[in-house]
Amino acid sequence: EKGTYPHYMLKEIDEQPLVMRKIVQNYQDENGALEVDSDIVKAMNNADRIYIIAAGTSYHAGLVGKQFIEKLAEIPVEVHISSEFGYNMPLLSQKPLFVFISQSGETADSRQVLVQVKEMGHKALTITNVAGSTLSREADYTLLLHAGPEIAVASTKAYTAQLAVLAILADVTAKSRGINAEFDLVQELGIVANAMEVLCDAKEDFESIAREYLAVTRNCFFIGRGIDFYVGLEGALKLKEISYIQAEGFAGGELKHGTIALIEEGTPVIAIATQDFVNLSIRGNVKEVAARGANPCIISMEGLEMDGDRFVIPEVNSLLTPLISVIPMQLISYYAALHRDCDVDKPRNLAKSVTVE
Ligand code: M6R
Known about the structure:
The chain is an alpha/beta fold. The protein is built from 13 helices and ten strands.
């Protein structure tokens, strides 16, 4: 039930700190160390390459998950859109492991790929919010999100839960391979949960950003580099699906290769800047669009902020920033949809789970 909340989406955004803490608890052993079913860790270690298959928001979580797995566990990862993979299969490695990410566990496009790769004799792991869902039943292994039911069509808490579970999977796999993490993930996810709380308490700021930048605009761009780019893709999807504003996520450096032609006087460009090593480059990209009349809105992170940034998120581990930088995207989209009188929880033309191919 949504209780005192006007919309499920807002309730589910607010649940994220709690979900983080629940996930950590669910994946801790009696000594407090993170653990994942040993068969799953074995399957990860047996793989020479991991293929993540997903759609929509879950695909965006997969892009970040690739960074986690490659950086922490040092296993190569490819991320594919499920609706493309079936008929456009890349040349597979010798020992692939397939990882399906799906909130509902019912997405037909993903299921079609699962059936295909099982027929080929490959192993599959499903990361889902729904125990007993089709993708969970048909895969060899399942990891649950423990996010609680997600009712709003726009996925929010499932995305951050997917990232947390992927980080845990990467971390536990890394340890099993003798790779020492530079941080304690339990502690870092605790810091993430606290930072999420700070952001959920800053709703007025995001409401005012939505009013200022998105109340009347026709379109909007999201830019970032590295994992900030992936969060930009998710920000654009969120904004499109609930506010019907034409939105695109772009790698900061790619905009000038064509799309910058769309920048007009007042075009909102939301820039995400949470990564030290590309902080100056993304800010250079902001200058490029500002010089062409764009209305930039920079969301940066403590320690990297500069004059004129519109919002500064609390500092978290640099690999885990998508877990919190996505919250401004969710809340800005939510308030943009409200300002434009859209049906937040049930956007037009969409269903919660897409069970047709
Ligand atoms: O249930 P799934 O995670 O497999 O769903 C995949 C997409 O249909 C879903 O993420 C969709 O993009 C959301 N409406 C995004 O908010």
